[in-house]
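Summary for the funding panel

The consortium committed to producing paired sequence-structure records for every protein in the target list. Below we show the first two records in order, beginning with the earlier of the two.
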Amino acid sequence: MSTSAAWLILVLAGLLEIAWAVGLEFTENWTRLGPSVLVVIAYLVDLILLSLPMRVLPAGTAYTVWVGIGSVGVTVFGILVFAESASPKRLACLALIVAGAIGLKLLPP
């Protein structure tokens, strides 16, 4: 697998992490079967996707970028859809997560 393909798959895995994490909200503590099954399937596929780029990219970098995409994505989704706080301090913390993930990508392995 090329490095470019690994990064593409890693971004897809990060986007899928957003989907299952947001989906947790709709399981209602695992009492709704449909959303619960979808979350479990999305999580399993997500872990498989995460494992693929880790064959090529440094594990710490891949994991940090994956978590960063998920964290920022879920937080932005919460701000836009669930009317969660978008305070300047909260947005600054998100910027730090993004900066850290970009820094790890740009540094040589």
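The next record, for a separate protein in the list, is shown here:
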Amino acid sequence: MESFGKFTSYYDKLSVILTKIMQENNYLNLSKAFVHWFFEQYLKLDEQAIGENIIDGDSDNGVDGIVYNENSKELILYQFKFPASKKNLGKQIDETTVLKLINGYNKLTATRKPIKANENFLTYRNMIKEQDIFS
């Protein structure tokens, strides 16, 4: 655990922030609050865009967030994991999670509608059918 000393401090600070975001937005877990925090802090999205870009939840097909940049014609899919405890700071995202994200991308871009998909996922799926995506 000592090798993660500075990360432990970041984890503690971020946990407080994420707990507040989780409570304010009625999220069920810290990972969804982490998506919100990242979109707000790093992508500088406003509250409406954050709500529209978060896909995380039942039937998200492994995709926690989607951002489409109209200027660059770039579609970015996000998968977030926030460790449940400090002892998990050294863990990596497992292969199953990565494969679910790839599968989610495939379902997002497929011609057939996925059997299970939440409303936000389907909204993006319908939107990108009509968009040029270069990256």
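Regarding this second record: Helices lie at 5-25, 30-41, 47-53, 95-109, 119-129. The longest strand covers residues 65-69.
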